[in-house]
Amino acid sequence: MSLLAREPGMAEKMAAWGAEWLPAEPLSRHTSLGVGGPADMVRLRDLRRLPELIADLRCRGVNWRLLGGGTNLLVADEGLNVVVLHLVREPDGLKFDGPRVEVPTAANLGTTVMECAKRYLGGMEGLIGVPGTVGGALTMNAGAYGTQIGDVVRAVSVLRGSSGGVEVLRMEDVRFQYRHSSFAADDILLSVSLELPERPYAEILEKIKQCNQKRRASQPINEKSAGCIFKNPPGHSTGKMIDELGLKGTRVGGAVVSERHGNFIVNRQGATASDIFKLMDLIRDRVRGAYGVELEEEVIVWRD
Ligand code: EPU
């Protein structure tokens, strides 16, 4: 029986909150890698209901995780014994005020970069091809081509999973590092205020074009992946090490080390999460043996 089906009165509450409950939803449908077993998913449109929903799950001792765009996520084949919360994009969009813009975290990152460009706001061009939501990008401090989203953040509105209260965190309250932010694991980021430099539209577009070209030339953007699978250890490029070891094209089941970029694992012909974990272990062992470096996952792994 699904986790929520076991909880008395839960179905009625979900209906009252206008939340959609998908029992045993295959998470492979919600990840760019296309792998991942089942979990109970709750899809919520009215975010004003979120504090009640979180408080209710907390009272019941039901663990939950928040799903963003699923583009940097590796979910185990066995699935998860937690509720996966999926917040449906808010329709009200971006609010501009001079060089500042308030962005709902459920907004698509690429769309946000383009909408800002149309208002002559640059500073995020490098993030153009990074898939996923603004919330996911903030959590990971996503970065590419010299841009990190944390650099342009002024404030973040957060629903604290621990207390159910909403707080506005100023830039000074949040630490952004390489592919890391200081938000708590149960924080739900609601919206972010960005401050961006004003630039001519043509200049922003040119930079976007260049970043797109570089990405297309060096990354397997048309295949199922979760972006770079490992972080770059200080002073090393993981993709380069994997390439130098001749590991490109190495396959476990349907999981293959991309021939285009060594730090991408792509899902060809129905890979499972287990194939990907095995391939990651193989890469870790080879890199450790040859370079004495321990690789750390860049992709977020969900397993019980
Ligand atoms: N390289 C190789 N072979 C490869 C891959 C790379 O020799 O198969 C070499 C390149 O020629 C270059 C160096 O390694 O000299 C660095 O490669 P690249 O410019 O592709 O950058 P990266 O360090 O591999 C990082 C981010 C990417 C981001 C790019 C562009 C990490 C783990 N990766 O990759 O982010 O798009 O820079 O700025 O920090 C991601 O976060 O998922 C991601 C893909």
Helical amount? 25-40%
Task: Identify low-pLDDT runs.
Answer: none
What fold name stands as the CATH topology of the largest domain?
Uridine Diphospho-n-acetylenolpyruvylglucosamine Reductase, domain 3
The geometry reads as globular
CATH architecture of the largest domain: 2-Layer Sandwich
CATH class of the largest domain: Alpha Beta
Class by SSE composition? alpha+beta
Bound molecules: uridine-diphosphate-2(N-acetylglucosaminyl) butyric acid
**Overall average pLDDT:** 95
Order of helices and strands: HEEHEEEEEHHEEEEEEEHHEEEHE
Biggest sheet, spatial arrangement of strands: 6-7-14-10-11
User: Would you report the number of β strands?
Assistant: 18
Count of runs of 4 or more consecutive helical residues: 7
Largest sheet: 5 strands, antiparallel
What does the model show?
The protein is an alpha+beta fold and 304 residues long. The protein has three domains: 4-87, Uridine Diphospho-n-acetylenolpyruvylglucosamine Reductase, domain 2 (2-Layer Sandwich), CATH 3.30.43; 95-217, Uridine Diphospho-n-acetylenolpyruvylglucosamine Reductase, domain 3, CATH 3.30.465; 220-302, UDP-N-acetylenolpyruvoylglucosamine reductase, C-terminal domain (Uridine Diphospho-n-acetylenolpyruvylglucosamine Reductase, domain 1), CATH 3.90.78.10. The protein has seven helices and 18 strands. The strands form six sheets. It has a five-stranded antiparallel beta sheet, covered by helices on one side. The longest helix is centred in the last third of the chain and has 19 residues, at 273-291. The protein binds uridine-diphosphate-2(N-acetylglucosaminyl) butyric acid. Uridine-diphosphate-2(N-acetylglucosaminyl) butyric acid binds at residues 144-145, 218, 227-228, 231-232, 237, 239-240, 243, 261-263, 298.
